[in-house]
Specification:
The chain is 35% helix and 23% strand. By secondary structure, the protein is an alpha/beta fold. It has a seven-stranded mixed β-sheet with strand order 3-4-2-1-5-6-7. β10 (151-158), α5 and β11 form a beta-alpha-beta unit.
Length: 302
């Protein structure tokens, strides 16, 4: 099985005619994703040839959903227009909106999240500023390379796109049920806790890797959740041990002050919840390999 994205997902690409969207739509198609079309209001009614397919360009998400039955939208929309595009997807009732766009103003992201809540949380948002989600061998919604690793028993949730790719590569011999990059902006949709809950409920996910970063308290809150609700083994990594205190560091999205938000504070919280935390991504992968070797019924490749 997988979380949030599966072999029956029907994927729409908002902003499909842009260069990045075109490139990654081709890769999604090559990975076996069912891409049903795209959205660009200025080019509605045309088709675009991608990956050997002629994909219809619709004027709105609602129109695309009515015509194709899409339940997932991937947004490659410039920052200036991304919030409105996300609101459009929410208003159309799409089940999952994966917002790849980087550089969306925080107040725009907050507006989108507030709108999703106000409309009953019908739409799960992943991102913004994220690589998306992949369920290897089933579907790929975003920019995660599909050839890093195959299907297997590990669930992966990460703030960092690059570290998502590295961890998938490090553990490629075991494989993943789903790997999700939630993004590191101050305001995001799906959180570590959301992914942990979904992996806990997924019978085919046997162990979980959680990657965090300095700033904020998301990892501390995830540690509390793990301690109270997660029965599956979890290993973790927190990026930013060498970051200077008091400085906002890119993805971290928050200023580190005192002990709150530091890598050490997050590591301590996770270890107190029973999570084994590596000092480097490679060490974290080694901890997972040791765990899987100790429980061979978990670690058997799918």
């Amino acid at each position: 099985m997988s979380i949030f994205l599966h072999e029956h997902s029907r994927v729409l690409v908002q902003g499909i005619t842009g260069s990045e969207a075109t490139k990654h739509t081709a890769k999604m198609l090559a990975a076996g994703t069912t891409v049903v079309g795209g959205v660009n209001a200025r080019k509605a009614g045309t088709t675009v040839a991608i990956g050997g397919r002629d994909l219809t360009v619709f004027g709105t998400v609602a129109e695309a959903m009515a015509e194709t039955g899409t339940d997932v939208s991937v947004l490659f929309v410039p920052p200036r227009f991304a919030a409105d595009a996300a609101v459009e997807a929410i208003d159309a009732g799409v089940g999952l909106a994966v917002v790849i766009t980087e550089g969306i103003p925080v107040h725009d992201s907050a507006r989108v999240w507030a709108h999703a809540c106000a409309t009953g949380n019908r739409t799960r948002i992943i991102g913004p500023n994220c690589p998306g989600i992949i369920s290897p061998g089933k579907s790929n919604a975003g920019i995660i390379p599909a050839d890093i690793a195959g299907a297997g028993p590990i669930g992966l949730v990460s703030k960092s796109g690059t570290l998502t790719y590295q961890m998938m590569y490090e553990l490629r011999e075991h494989g993943f049920s789903s790997a999700i990059g939630i993004g590191g902006d101050p305001v995001i949709g799906t959180t570590h806790i959301d992914a942990l809950a979904a992996f806990e409920a997924d019978p085919d996910t046997k162990a979980i890797v959680m990657i965090g970063e300095i700033g904020g308290d998301a990892e501390e809150r995830a540690a509390d959740y793990i301690k109270a609700n997660v029965t599956k083994p979890v290993v973790g990594y927190v990026a930013g041990f060498t970051a200077p205190e008091g400085k906002t560091m890119g993805h971290a999205g928050a200023i580190v002050s005192g002990s709150a938000g530091t890598a050490q504070a997050k590591k301590d919280a996770l270890e107190a919840a029973g999570v084994k935390v590596g000092k480097t991504p490679s060490e974290t992968a080694a901890l997972m390999r040791e765990l899987l070797a100790a429980h061979q019924e978990i670690g058997a490749p799918a």
